[in-house]
């Protein structure tokens, strides 16, 4: 780096590491075992990238960013692939031996995904470690193995690689010398000295002879080498040694050809072709320096895989160019990952930011409760006139009517008090025709009254009350600003067939709190985390300046979905939040709800996906008509995609159902986007709740508060991670509150009847 004058730059580095490693990504490689006589302690089982980075950092005079670790076989394949795009196999036949090839992703069970291919490092040196080559191993192979650093391992490599072939030749010559078949001498003493001398000759020496076998000057070279080593070989000795070298090298070539044949056959089967055309990138001293070896390898491959046209391409620059190419790809992908991470970083709020959200929620709560500030407050803190939670004395039959969306439910709830309290419910769901939803109020209410009479009154004749729960989805033109209780009463009167007493109208959040309070007396907070988002809680009367009286408590419907409508959350809103808001039916309103409720999370995700696609990171850079469609990405798909049980293949199937032609890489990115958006939703919802429970604690002057929150809503119930993240956030942001969460089984039905029952009890007491 100094010589090239680049020592001051932080360059991406490709690391060729020619040993068996377990990899889960390009820049991570855990060494499985040393081979090729390496035995450095403290490295096996460690990530070699981390070890190298640590060493570079310790040196301290330059910086390097290791982007990719590749095996030398992979580097060879990539190097040759640069010159020949058909290259899909890489082989090393040198000191060690190994192979890699491009396998179909659908066949790799260890990696998620089913599209495209991935390079597999076979580590075929360990072939036979399970005993499958025992019938081919000789006494010399076994002797080599016993004397190695790793007995019982890398058995194929010990039969075929350059590191051990010379040793095989040596062991054969030693045995031949002992049996008097080589290097004849006149006395027993000279025979012994010759054997000892041959025994100590190095494997490198035999490799030198090995490469000369069958060449034109082979015999002459063989004699020169043996003479140089102090042996006086005869012509017959040289022929015998040359013959041994040829046999050993040809066995190696045949073994390599047979295993390569297995890979080529698999490639052919994967592609489903009658004849395979492919290129094998190859490197290593055995192949380069031994021409007879290369010819034998080619010939045997043709004989074993006759229905394949195989080109062998020698890597001129080893694995270095290939490693650099892999690094270049890794560098591009890393840059893409960084840009995606920067995009999503806006959604990842710090604890300090969440505490600020909690603080601002507290400010808006005070504004909503204050008489002077109520009219301008965004969080309205509406009094519900529910002064008490159930105390167990409620008793009777109550009718509940739940209006919402395109359906409404009519419920008969039978509450029995005493030692064995019971709540028995009968309900039926009816669709509301669009013409009724958009009709005048008297027609709408008369429609409701007809259904109440027709399907409930015939079974039960006496009723004590009815709750009307007015929610989203209705457009009755003359209802706004009118008393819906009175409208319903008029509708019932017009029917003239039964008489009902409308006792209470409450929000679904309050119904949820009351349902859970019936089971758990410490429940004083209600939360809806579903299509919409809202909360209620029992506030001290003295703090509710919009209602007369200072004694006791009253449930306040926060309507916290409008939190942020005054701009107090603008610093954490993203461009995608703004896009969703601008295209909504109520632009500029319910901004908090648009950041954390089920109705809008899918739209936030869709807008992010459009942006990432425009930047070329998703769906091959093509924005489909499906992706342009508002509302196509429903929140239920977020729940499915984020499920821990769902593999990327299934995520991709969901995206394809939506008409999004995605790859498995796309699926990974989409899953991350969904997770990030859901994370923020759960966290800011938790920050708001932390503000509420801390308010209750401070109201009562307590150092520590035990309280239960009743919760309902599909986002909370069905999303795989929302509830856990929400709980964790509340715990972290309100450490002085021990908050339990109780899921409401029927918040807007059972709770509705309970509120009616409490209202009847209170009215009886007052009279």
UniProtKB/TrEMBL annotation:
Record GO cellular component, one term: cytosol
Pathway(s) annotated for this protein in UniProt: Carbohydrate degradation; glycolysis; D-glyceraldehyde 3-phosphate and glycerone phosphate from D-glucose: step 1/4; Carbohydrate metabolism; hexose metabolism
InterPro entries referenced in this protein's UniProt entry, alphabetically: ATPase_NBD, Hexokinase, Hexokinase_BS, Hexokinase_C, Hexokinase_N
Family matches, as Gene3D superfamilies: 3.30.420.40, 3.40.367.20
Keyword Cell membrane: no
GO molecular function: ATP binding; D-glucose binding; fructokinase activity; glucokinase activity; mannokinase activity
Class in the EC hierarchy, top level: transferase
Domain spans labelled Hexokinase C-terminal: 89-329, 525-758
Catalyses which reaction(s): a D-hexose + ATP = a D-hexose 6-phosphate + ADP + H(+); D-glucose + ATP = D-glucose 6-phosphate + ADP + H(+)
Keywords for the protein's UniProt record, in alphabetical order: ATP-binding, Glycolysis, Kinase, Nucleotide-binding, Transferase
GO biological process terms, semicolon-separated: glucose metabolic process; glycolytic process; intracellular glucose homeostasis
EC identifiers of the protein: 2.7.1.1
Residues in Hexokinase N-terminal domain copies: 6-81, 340-451, 453-518
Family: Belongs to the hexokinase family.
Protein name (record): hexokinase
């Amino acid at each position: 780096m100094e010589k090239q004058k680049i020592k001051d730059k932080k360059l991406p580095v490709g690391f060729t590491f020619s040993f068996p490693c377990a990899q889960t990504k390009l820049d991570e490689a855990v060494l499985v075992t040393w081979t090729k006589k390496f035995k450095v302690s403290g490295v096996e089982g460690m990530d070699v990238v981390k070890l190298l980075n640590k060493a570079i950092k310790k040196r301290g005079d330059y910086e390097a960013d290791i982007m990719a670790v590749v095996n030398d076989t992979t580097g060879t394949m990539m190097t040759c692939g640069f010159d020949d795009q058909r290259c899909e196999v890489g082989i090393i036949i040198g000191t060690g031996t190994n192979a890699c090839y491009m396998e179909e992703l659908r066949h790799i069970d260890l990696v998620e995904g089913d599209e495209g291919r991935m390079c597999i490092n076979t580590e075929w040196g360990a072939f036979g470690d399970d005993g499958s080559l025992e019938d081919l191993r000789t006494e010399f192979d076994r002797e080599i193995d016993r004397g190695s650093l790793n007995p019982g391992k890398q058995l194929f490599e010990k039969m075929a690689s350059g590191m051990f072939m010379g040793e095989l030749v040596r062991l054969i010559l030693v045995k031949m010398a002992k049996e008097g078949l080589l290097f004849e001498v006149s006395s027993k003493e000279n025979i012994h000295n010759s054997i000892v001398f041959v025994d100590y000759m190095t494997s490198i020496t035999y490799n030198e002879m090995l490469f000369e076998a069958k060449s034109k000057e082979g015999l002459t070279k063989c004699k020169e080498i043996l003479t140089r080593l102090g042996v006086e070989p005869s012509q017959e000795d040289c022929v015998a040694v040359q013959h041994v070298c040829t046999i050993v090298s040809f066995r190696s070539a045949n073994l390599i050809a047979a295993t390569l044949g297995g890979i080529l056959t698999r490639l052919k089967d994967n592609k489903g072709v009658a004849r395979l055309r492919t290129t094998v990138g190859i490197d290593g001293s055995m192949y380069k320096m031994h021409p007879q070896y290369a010819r034998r390898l080619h010939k045997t491959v043709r004989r074993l895989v006759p229905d394949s046209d195989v080109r062998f391409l020698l890597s001129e620059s080893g694995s270095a160019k290939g490693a650099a190419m892999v690094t270049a790809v890794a560098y591009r992908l890393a840059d893409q990952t960084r840009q995606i991470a920067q995009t999503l970083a806006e959604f990842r709020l710090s604890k300090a930011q969440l505490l600020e959200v909690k603080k601002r929620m507290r400010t808006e709560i005070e504004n909503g409760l204050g008489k002077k500030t109520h009219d301008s407050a965004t969080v309205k803190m509406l009094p519900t006139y529910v002064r008490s939670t159930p105390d167990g004395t409620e008793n009777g039959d109550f009718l509940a009517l739940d209006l919402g969306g395109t359906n409404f439910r009519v419920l008969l709830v039978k509450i029995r008090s005493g030692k064995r309290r019971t709540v028995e419910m009968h309900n039926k769901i009816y669709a509301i025709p669009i013409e009724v939803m958009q009709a005048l109020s008297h027609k709408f209410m008369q429609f409701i009254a007809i259904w109440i009479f027709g399907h409930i009154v015939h079974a039960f004749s006496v009723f004590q009350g009815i709750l009307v729960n007015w929610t989203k989805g209705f457009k009755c033109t003359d209802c706004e600003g009118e008393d819906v209780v009175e409208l319903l009463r008029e509708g019932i009167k017009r029917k003239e067939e039964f008489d009902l007493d409308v006792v209470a109208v409450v929000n679904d959040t309050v119904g949820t709190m009351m349902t859970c309070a019936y089971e758990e007396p410490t429940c004083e907070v209600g939360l809806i985390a579903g299509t919409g988002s809202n909360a209620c809680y029992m506030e001290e009367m003295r703090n509710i300046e919009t209602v007369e009286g200072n004694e006791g408590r009253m449930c306040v419907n926060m309507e916290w979905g409008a939190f942020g409508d005054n701009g107090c959350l603008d610093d954490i809103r993203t461009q995608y939040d703004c896009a969703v808001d601008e295209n909504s039916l109520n632009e500029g309103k319910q901004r908090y709800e648009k950041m954390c409720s089920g109705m809008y999370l899918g739209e936030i995700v869709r807008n992010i996906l459009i942006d990432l696609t425009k930047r070329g990171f998703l769906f091959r850079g093509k924005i489909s008509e499906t992706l342009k469609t508002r509302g196509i990405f429903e929140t239920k798909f977020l729940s499915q995609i984020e499920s821990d049980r769902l593999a990327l293949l299934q995520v991709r199937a969901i995206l394809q159902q939506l008409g999004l032609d995605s790859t498995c890489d796309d699926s990974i990115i989409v899953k991350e986007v969904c997770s990030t958006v859901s994370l923020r939703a759960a966290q800011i919802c938790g920050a708001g709740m932390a503000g509420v429970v801390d308010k209750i604690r401070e109201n009562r002057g307590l150092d520590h508060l035990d309280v239960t929150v009743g919760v309902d809503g599909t986002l909370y119930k069905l999303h795989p991670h929302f509830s856990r993240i929400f709980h964790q956030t509340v715990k972290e942001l309100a450490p002085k509150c021990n908050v339990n969460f109780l899921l409401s089984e029927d918040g807007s039905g059972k709770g509705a009847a309970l509120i009616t029952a409490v209202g009847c009890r209170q009215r009886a007491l007052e009279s």
